[in-house]
From TrEMBL:
<dbReference type="InterPro" id="IPR022537">
    <property type="entry name" value="TRSP_dom"/>
</dbReference>
<keyword id="KW-0328">Glycosyltransferase</keyword>
<dbReference type="Pfam" id="PF15609">
    <property type="entry name" value="PRTase_2"/>
</dbReference>
<dbReference type="GO" id="GO:0016757">
    <property type="term" value="F:glycosyltransferase activity"/>
</dbReference>
<feature type="domain" description="Cysteine protease StiP N-terminal">
    <location>
        <begin position="481"/>
        <end position="743"/>
    </location>
</feature>
<dbReference type="InterPro" id="IPR028157">
    <property type="entry name" value="PELOTA_dom"/>
</dbReference>
<dbReference type="InterPro" id="IPR041688">
    <property type="entry name" value="PRTase_2"/>
</dbReference>
<feature type="domain" description="TRSP">
    <location>
        <begin position="299"/>
        <end position="435"/>
    </location>
</feature>
<dbReference type="InterPro" id="IPR011215">
    <property type="entry name" value="StiP_N"/>
</dbReference>
<feature type="domain" description="Orotate phosphoribosyltransferase-like">
    <location>
        <begin position="26"/>
        <end position="213"/>
    </location>
</feature>
<dbReference type="InterPro" id="IPR029057">
    <property type="entry name" value="PRTase-like"/>
</dbReference>
<keyword id="KW-0808">Transferase</keyword>
<protein>
    <submittedName>
        <fullName>Phosphoribosyltransferase</fullName>
    </submittedName>
</protein>
<dbReference type="Pfam" id="PF11202">
    <property type="entry name" value="StiP"/>
</dbReference>
<dbReference type="Pfam" id="PF15608">
    <property type="entry name" value="PELOTA_1"/>
</dbReference>
<dbReference type="InterPro" id="IPR000836">
    <property type="entry name" value="PRTase_dom"/>
</dbReference>
<dbReference type="Pfam" id="PF12500">
    <property type="entry name" value="TRSP"/>
</dbReference>
Length: 866
C-alpha cells in the first residue's frame, strides 16, 4: 500500500485532511518557510511541485472548463473571461479557458511589463509574494459584463478571491462570477463569508471544484511548524567540509541542499523505485533547442490569450514537439519538461504533445518562488529541492528560486522551458538553474519562448501628445490654500465649487460594496469641539521639539543623499538643490517644514510642490509630466507625513515605474521621505517611533484648508490634474500656519542633536523590514477582517479612521499615554471601543468596520454610531 505523502507532516503537527476520499490522492503536505502559514498543500495534479503526467495536468483543467461551460450555458459561456492566478495557477487557468473553448484568458502577474498599463491589482495575503498585477494588452478585456471565471489551484480561505472580486467589481461591475479550483478546502465560516459577500455586491458567485474538504489545524501549529522548519534547515546548512543533520526520527532523512548543493539521501533507503546515484557523477550536457515559436503568438496569458491565439498554438505544437524529440538522446526513457514560474501553459502544452507523440515517459513540473522544506521520506510531498538564483531580473530584486522533486527522480533528460526575459547570464551561471539540473541528469535541454511584448495601440505613435506647456501652473495661496505662495505650489485643479461631500456611513457602505472608490467623494469635514481643539494645542506644545528634531533629521538625510550639482548659467557649480514633492495632503505640512529647515540651517530655497496619489489608482501622471518639464526628475524627493503599513510606498513605486514606461521619462526615485516610519517601510525618515504628529489630529484646518484629493472620471479628464477643494469658509478655525510656526520655532534648540542623529543614520543600515505590513496581515486575520485595507496602523492612521471612516474598534498598546488622548476622545464621541493589547507593534491601530452597512453592529453587539 502506498504511503500518503502527507503522513510525515500529519504525524508531527497533528494536521488533518478531511473530506472527499480523493483528497489524499490529490494532495500531500509539506512545510514552508513562511511567517503566515506553516503547512503547504502540495497538489499532485497541478504540475508545480510534483512532476506529473502532462495529460493528467491538462486534462483536469480542461474538464473543469467544460463543467463551467455546462454551468453557464453556451450563451453566457461565449461572453465569459477567464482569470488565473500567478504563479501557481497560470497553467490551470489557461487549461480551464481551453475547456470553455470560446473564452479569452488573462492571468495575474508579479512582473511589471514596460508600456502596459495596470488594469487592476490585489493582494494574496498568505502567499510568499503577495502583490498581483493585471496587465491586459486590450484594456477592454475585463470591462465586459459577461461572467468572470476566477481560477486558482486551491480555495483555502477565499481571501484572495474576495480581494480580487472587490477590486475588479469596483472597476468593472458584473452580475456573475464563477470560482474554479482543484480543491475547496474552506471552513464553514469561510464559505459563509463568500456567500455574504456575494449578497453585498448583488452578484452571483458559483464554485466549481474537483474535490472538497477541510484542513484541521491544531492550536500552535504555526509556531510548531516554524520550529520544525528551522530545525531541519539549520541542520541541512553546510558547516565546514561536511553537512550536519539532526538526529532523525525513525524513517526520516532530510535533504542537505539549502544552499543549492543539491545533495539528496539515497531514495532506495526509503523503499521507493527511484534509482539512486552510484558514486560521483559527471555534470550533464546542456543543449539549446530552437522551437521556432510562431511570431506574435503570446507565450502565455500575462497580457491576454484569445481563442485565435489558441488555434495558432494548436497548429504549431506538433512541429515544436518534434524539434524537442529530435534533440533528446535516443535512450531517453524518462523525460521532464520543466516550466518556469508563471510560464506554465506553454511548457505544459509542449509536454502533452511530446507525451502524445513519443514513447518516452514524460513528466511536467515548473520552478517556483516558494521556499519549502525538503525531506526525503515517502510520507512527505517534497522529497528533494534544487536551489538557484533568480534569473529574470525580478522587480523585487535577486533571491532564491526552487525546483522540487527533480533531483533523484531518475530523469534521463530535463527540458527547461523559459521565456526570453529569463534567458540571462544568471540562468547559465555556475550556480544557475541549468548547472543545478546538470548535476542530476545527463542531458539538459534549453528551449526559449519569446517573451511577448504587446504592440502599441493603433495610432498611438501618431497621436499628438498634449504639450506640457498646456498643463496649468501650480495653484498657490492665498487664492488656493492658506499657506504663503512660496511655501508650496499645488499641482491640483480647484474643485471648490463642486459638492463632493457625503456622510461617512454612506461613503463607507459605497466603498465596501464596490460601488465607489474612496477618492470619488469627500467625507464631511470634522468640526472639532473646544475640548478636542485644546487636546491639539496640548499635544503641539508637548511635541513641538520632538517634531522639530525629526524634521531636522529627515531633511539632513535628504540633503546628504541628493548630491546632484548643477551648472549655474553664469558658470560655477550650484549647491545641491532637491525638489520637494509632498503627497497631498498629509505630506504637505511636512514638506513645508523640511523646506523651512533647509532654509534655516543651510540657506537653501528649495522648490516644493504637492501632488495627488490615490491608493489603487496611482500618482497623478500629469503632475509628474509638469515636474519633469520644469525640473530634473533626479532631484525630486517625494515627501509624506508617516507610514502605516506601507501601502502608499508600494503604490508610489509601482506608479513611478508605470509612468516611466508609458511616458518614457526616467529619473524619478519612488523612495519616500517621511517624518515617522513606524512601519519600517522606507529608508529616509526622521524617526521610526509611533507617536502623535499633531497635524494628524485635524483635517483641512491643519493642512492649508485643503481637502483630500479627488479622482473622479466626470471631473478629472485624462489631461487634468487630480482635484481638491479649498475650504475658505473654515478660515476662522485654521491652525495650519500656527502649527508650522510652533515647530519651526524649536529648530535652534534641536539642531545639534538632529544633525548628529542624521549622521548616525547615514552610516546605519536603514533597509526597510516591512514589519508593519506583516503586523497588519496578522491583525487582519486574528480579528477576522481578511482585508488589510481595513486595518490602519499607527497614531496618524487611527486618527484618520476616527475622523473619516466607520470605525469598528481601536487597538491600543497597553500603557500608551498622552499620545492617545485625542484618539480616546474621538472614540468616545463615536461610540467606538478602545481595546488594550499587549506587545502591539504600534502605539495604536484603527480597525474599519469590516462589513459595514447602515445599522451594522460590532462583534460585541454595539451599534456603530456617528
Amino acid at each position: 500500500m502506498n504511503t500518503w505523502s502527507g503522513t510525515w507532516v500529519a504525524e508531527r503537527l497533528g494536521v488533518e485532511l478531511a473530506g472527499d476520499e480523493r483528497l489524499r490522492g490529490m494532495l500531500g503536505l509539506a512545510l514552508r518557510r513562511n511567517p503566515k502559514r506553516a503547512h503547504l498543500l502540495v497538489s499532485n495534479l497541478l504540475g508545480k511541485h510534483v512532476p506529473q503526467t502532462p495529460s493528467v495536468v491538462y486534462g483536469h483543467g480542461v474538464e473543469l472548463g467544460r463543467r463551467v461551460r455546462e454551468l453557464l450555458g453556451d450563451a453566457a459561456a461565449a461572453q465569459a473571461v477567464v482569470l488565473g492566478y500567478a504563479e501557481t495557477a497560470t497553467g490551470l487557468g489557461h487549461s480551464v479557458a481551453d475547456g470553455l473553448g470560446t473564452a479569452p484568458y488573462l492571468h495575474s502577474t508579479r512582473r511589471p511589463v514596460a508600456g502596459v498599463a495596470t488594469a487592476g491589482g490585489f493582494e494574496e495575503s498568505h502567499s510568499h509574494a503577495t502583490s498581483h498585477l493585471l496587465l491586459p494588452e486590450d484594456p477592454s478585456l475585463l470591462a465586459g459584463d459577461g461572467p468572470l471565471v476566477l481560477v486558482d489551484d486551491e480555495f483555502s480561505t477565499g481571501n484572495t478571491v474576495l480581494n480580487t472580486v472587490r477590486d475588479l467589481h469596483a472597476r468593472y461591475p458584473r452580475e456573475r462570477y464563477v470560482v474554479v479550483a482543484l480543491v475547496d478546502m474552506r471552513s464553514a465560516a469561510d464559505a459563509g463569508r463568500l456567500e455574504e459577500f456575494a449578497r453585498e455586491i448583488g452578484a452571483r458567485i458559483d464554485l466549481v471544484t474537483v474535490a472538497s474538504g477541510t484542513v484541521r489545524l491544531p492550536d500552535g501549529v504555526l509556531e510548531k511548524g516554524q520550529a520544525l522548519v528551522a530545525r531541519f534547515e539549520t541542520a541541512a546548512a553546510p558547516s565546514g567540509p561536511s553537512t550536519q543533520f539532526p538526529a532523525p526520527l525513525e524513517g526520516e532523512s532530510v535533504t542537505g541542499d539549502s544552499q543549492g548543493a543539491g545533495r539528496t539521501a539515497d531514495p532506495r533507503a526509503r523503499g521507493t523505485a527511484r534509482p539512486a546515484p552510484t558514486g560521483p557523477q559527471s555534470p550533464g550536457t546542456v543543449t539549446r533547442v530552437g522551437l521556432r515559436w510562431p511570431a506574435r503568438l503570446p507565450d502565455g496569458g500575462r497580457h491576454g490569450f484569445t481563442p485565435t491565439h489558441r488555434a495558432q498554438l494548436d497548429a504549431a505544437l506538433p512541429a515544436m514537439a518534434d524539434r524537442i524529440a529530435a534533440a533528446l538522446p535516443e535512450d531517453a526513457h524518462r523525460v521532464l519538461i520543466l516550466g518556469f514560474e508563471e510560464l506554465m501553459y506553454a511548457p505544459l502544452r509542449l509536454a502533452a504533445e511530446l507525451e502524445r507523440t513519443t514513447t518516452a515517459e514524460v513528466r511536467y513540473s515548473t520552478t517556483t518562488r516558494s521556499p519549502v522544506l525538503a525531506v526525503d521520506d515517502p510520507g512527505y510531498a517534497i522529497r528533494t529541492r534544487l536551489v538557484f538564483p533568480a534569473h529574470d531580473d525580478p522587480v523585487d530584486g535577486p533571491g532564491e528560486r526552487y525546483a522540487y522533486n527533480v533531483a533523484g527522480a531518475g530523469f534521463d533528460a530535463v527540458v527547461a522551458v523559459v521565456d526570453s526575459a529569463a534567458d540571462t547570464p544568471a540562468l547559465h551561471a555556475p550556480d544557475g538553474l541549468l548547472a543545478r539540473l546538470a548535476e542530476h541528469t545527463p542531458h539538459v535541454l534549453l528551449a526559449v519562448v519569446p517573451s511577448y511584448v504587446p504592440a502599441a495601440p493603433a495610432g498611438a505613435q501618431d497621436a499628438p501628445e498634449r504639450p506640457v506647456t498646456m498643463l496649468p501652473e501650480p495653484l498657490r495661496g492665498p487664492a488656493f490654500s492658506s499657506y504663503a505662495p512660496e511655501e508650496v505650489g499645488w499641482l491640483l485643479q480647484d474643485l471648490s465649487d463642486v459638492t463632493l461631500e457625503a456622510p461617512t456611513e454612506e461613503r463607507e457602505e459605497a466603498i465596501q460594496s464596490g460601488g465607489a472608490h474612496y477618492a470619488e467623494s469627500l467625507p464631511v469635514e470634522y468640526q472639532p469641539s473646544e475640548q478636542y481643539q485644546q487636546l491639539f494645542h496640548n499635544a503641539l506644545d508637548a511635541s513641538a521639539a520632538r517634531l522639530a528634531h525629526a524634521v531636522g533629521v529627515v531633511t539632513e538625510v535628504v540633503l546628504a543623499e541628493r548630491p546632484h550639482s548643477r551648472l549655474r548659467p553664469s558658470g560655477g557649480i550650484s549647491m545641491p538643490r532637491p525638489v520637494l514633492v509632498s503627497l497631498a495632503r498629509a505630506g504637505t505640512p511636512v514638506g513645508i517644514l523640511m523646506r523651512r529647515w533647509a532654509q534655516h540651517r543651510h540657506g537653501l530655497d528649495l522648490p516644493h510642490y504637492a501632488v495627488s496619489i490615490v491608493r489603487g489608482r496611482g500618482i497623478d501622471a500629469n503632475a509628474l509630466r509638469w515636474l519633469a518639464a520644469h525640473h530634473d526628475p533626479r532631484d525630486v524627493v517625494f515627501v509624506d507625513g508617516w507610514t502605516g503599513k506601507g501601502a502608499i510606498a508600494r503604490e508610489l513605486a509601482q506608479a513611478v515605474e508605470e509612468f516611466e514606461k508609458v511616458h518614457g521619462v526616467s529619473g524619478f526615485d519612488p523612495e519616500i521621505a517621511v517624518l515617522a516610519d513606524p512601519g519600517s517601510c522606507v529608508r529616509t525618515y526622521g524617526t521610526r517611533e509611533d507617536y502623535l504628529i499633531p497635524s494628524a489630529c485635524l483635517n483641512s484646518t491643519v493642512s492649508g484648508l485643503i481637502s483630500r484629493t479627488v479622482l473622479r472620471a466626470d471631473l478629472v479628464g485624462p489631461d487634468d490634474y487630480h482635484g481638491a477643494k479649498y475650504y475658505r469658509e473654515l478660515a476662522h478655525s485654521d491652525l495650519s500656519v500656527a502649527f508650522l510656526d510652533a515647530v519651526s520655532a524649536r529648530f535652534d534648540e534641536v539642531t545639534e542633536a538632529a544633525c548628529a542623529e542624521a549622521k548616525d543614520l547615514l552610516a546605519a543600515d536603514r533597509t526597510p523590514t516591512w514589519a508593519g505590513w506583516a503586523a497588519v496581515e496578522r491583525i487582519s486575520e486574528e480579528y477576522g477582517i481578511h482585508d488589510v485595507n481595513l486595518v490602519k496602523p499607527g497614531v496618524g492612521e487611527t486618527t484618520r479612521v476616527l475622523l473619516r471612516r466607520v470605525p469598528w474598534k481601536v487597538l491600543a498598546r497597553a500603557g500608551a499615554g498622552s499620545d492617545l488622548d485625542h484618539v480616546r476622545l474621538l472614540a468616545e464621541q463615536r461610540g467606538v471601543p478602545v481595546e488594550e493589547v499587549p506587545d502591539l507593534p504600534y502605539t495604536c491601530v484603527g480597525l474599519i468596520h469590516p462589513r459595514y452597512t447602515r445599522g451594522a453592529t460590532g462583534a460585541d453587539g454595539t451599534a456603530v454610531t456617528r
